[in-house]
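Repro case for the chain-ordering regression, as requested:
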Amino acid sequence: MNLFGILDVSGSALTAERERAEIATSNLANMETTSTPEGGPYKRVQVVFTATHPQSTGFSNVLASVSDLQVEGVRVEGVVTDTAPPVRRYDPGNPEADAQGYVSYPNVNPSEEMVDLMGAARSYDLNVSAIAATKSMIESSIDILR
Amino acid sequence: MSLIDTPNMSILERYLNLAAFRQELISSNIANIDTPGYKTVDIDFQRELSRAMTLPEGQSMPMVEQVQGLIQRPDGNNVSIDRESLLLSQTQMQFTAAIQLMRAEFQNLNEAINGGA
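-- result from build under test --
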């Protein structure tokens, strides 16, 4: 039970949410990318979150007690590729066009990505408020010394 | 009981410990708001506080349990933003209130030491 450990928990969420926003913006940026080094159009990727014990710093590790083991942070377990097929659009003038004149575009839906991005931003904000609350608690305990 | 370690002090100390632990659980719930399958955890504050009173200092291990009756999303997660943000500010205020009481206790002591001067 230590207040500094709470910052590790909320901090892990900040990292995870930032990564989620990064992935969503990367999907948006590559909405029209028709060729990649691996061949074929860009494929939409998504993050997978999992609950985990926060990687605490050495100092708070020393102060951590058994009950802290019940507290879980979050981390990005992996990045998975969406298996949805690419969208085919007729564009015979495009150098990427196949014999029938169709070009394979990434399976990215901009509205879906925007919603994901907003969700990540909201969750990030919420965790920032949690950090602010914890900070004010730490400050008030320090006030006892004054 | 000694001059500094008054009964009020040890009650406040247990209260603060429990409030800090609850804050930790709430932060953990908030951190996992997007984790599939995560279930909201919490402690029964009143029950744990009265249990901590009967045990010697630092002996109590709060019992963490999953909160029932919350709406579960399709991904198996049941964290409610409203519940957690409300509890976050509530716990913060409880903590600050206990800290103020503790300061008042120390001030009384200080006054006694200084002979009311």
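Ordering looks correct now. The helical segments of chain A are 3-29, 58-63, 110-143.
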